Amino acid sequence: MIRIAFDFKQQLDGTIGGEMHSYCFQCGACVGDCPAARYSERFNPRRILLEAITGHTENLLGDDSVLWECTNCYNCYERCPQDVRPVEVIMALKNICTQRKTSPDKVTHMVDAVARAGCTVMKTSAAQRMREELELPPLPAPGVDDLKKIIEP
Amino acid sequence: MSENRQYIPFYGCMISLKYPQFEAAVRRTAPSLGMELIDIEGFTCCPDPIYFKSSDKMNWLTVAARNLCLAEKRGLDLITLCSGCTATLLETRHLLSSDAGLRSRVNKRLAKIGMTFKGSSRVRHIVTVLRDDVGFERIARTVSRPLENIRVAIHYGCHLLKPSRIMQVDDPDSPTILEQLVNLTGAEAIEHEEKLLCCGKACENPDIPPHMTFDVMRSVDKLNVDCMCLICPTCFDEYDLGQLKLSRLFNTKIEIPVLYYFQLLGLAQGIPPEKLGLSRHKIKATELVEKIGALAAVS
In what order do the strands lie in the sheet with B5-10? Predict the structure, then answer.
């Protein structure tokens, strides 16, 4: 018998995008049109939602989680008859991974880059030169000082 | 529309710094379309709808809302050139407009920098501005060098179309907006089997995206096209540089130039290829440029 892990479900419900997970009735509409499921043997959005419904997501929240194989294409969001928005539930689970420090390094690097420079691509001299060659105006200064005040750890 | 209309362009990190040729193509094609682009200071990364959003959605919404506030302050609509920026800014605007609780949480943070999200400026992907404001007739009138006998495979990418109830651009299962825009240049838009497949760039399993790229490129390669046309810099990454990777991984030789829509339109408007940055692409468009009779060669 499966015991529902209500504490976790409550946490997921309180994470933006996770609110609708309980409405999944396991129809599998999200799977048929999922590119990650087409190319990966282990990625299955219906399966991820089953774990979310029961609250037993231990397998999803560790290092090297299958969650990161999601291509973020939003086909499941289109197909879901229950308006669960599986991709957003997956995103909410990723937010929980980040709290647990199991997200890929890329995630923290990206946030650091934005907080530090306002930008995810480095403003190298080569990039500036490329812009000059195309006769593009200099880049305006990004509002980095503001970001320090509004991004919370 | 006969007079000019003003918009605030949101170029985004990838286009400004990695593929500035797309920015150049938009800046050069816009004047004849009656689009006046008003550059403003202070934008940051949209922020990125995959990794930044994966970190913390509250931070993601707040940084995005700050960008929206800058446009609201100027009282103009924001136009996006990148599908990722479109996803972030449109979803944020949608969520904050429809969820008062979330809006007040975000506004509480924005108060620290003296800003409030109101939702007064719209966010629009630039191709929808072409269709809905400029209009097909006016676009056709800007074409001075019709791209006759040029066959163009369209690739949509995901975030222009989905989630459709937020994006409200076109039918996500059978979109036609890009075909219509390509046909206006005098070229012939060609459908390929995998035209709606995701580019796969966001998938963190390194074995998967190359297979996705391979399937798309094989589907395009069968159709004897002169180039591929898209509107997303992330898709461009996968299909331009991506073709070089395919040749190593699968010992294949597919070489199809990939153009951002405004580069194609620019060629049709008679803009020299070098002003559209075509030489920056990994897969050179030399044959295409010769075929349409644009004299300056692509180096």
Answer: B35-37, B5-10, B78-80, B123-125
Mean pLDDT throughout B252-258? 96
Could you tell me which chain A residue has the CA closest to the CA of B273? A134
- Total domains present in chain A: 2
pTM assigned to the model: 0.96
User: Given this model, what pLDDT does residue A1 score?
Assistant: 80
> How far is A44 from B274, CA to CA, in rounded Å?
46
Q: Which residue out of A39, A97, A108 would a mutagenesis test of the B interface target, given it has the greatest number of B Cβ atoms within 10 Å?
A: A39
Residues B185 and B45 in one domain: no
Which runs of E-coded beta strand occur in chain B? 5-10, 35-37, 78-80, 123-125, 151-154, 188-190, 227-230, 258-260
Does the beta carbon of A108 lie under 8 angstroms from any beta carbon of chain B? yes
Range of the domain at A117: 105-137
pLDDT in tens, A70-125: 999 999 999 999 999 999 999 999 999 999 999 999 999 999 999 999 999 999 99
A140 touching B, CB under 8 A?
yes
Q: With a CB-CB cutoff of 8 Å, which residues 57-96 of chain A face chain B? A: 68-75, 77-78, 85, 91-92, 94-95
Residue pointed to by tokens 């999803």: A60
The answer to whether B164 touches B122, Cβ cutoff 8 Å, is: no
Interface with A, mutate which of B17, B102, B276 (most A CBs under 10 A): B17
Number of domains in chain B: 2
- Domain end call among B126, B155, B176: B126
Domain around B106: 5-126
| Same domain assignment for residues B69 and B37 | yes
Residue B24 — very low, low, confident or very high, per pLDDT cuts 50/70/90? Answer: very high
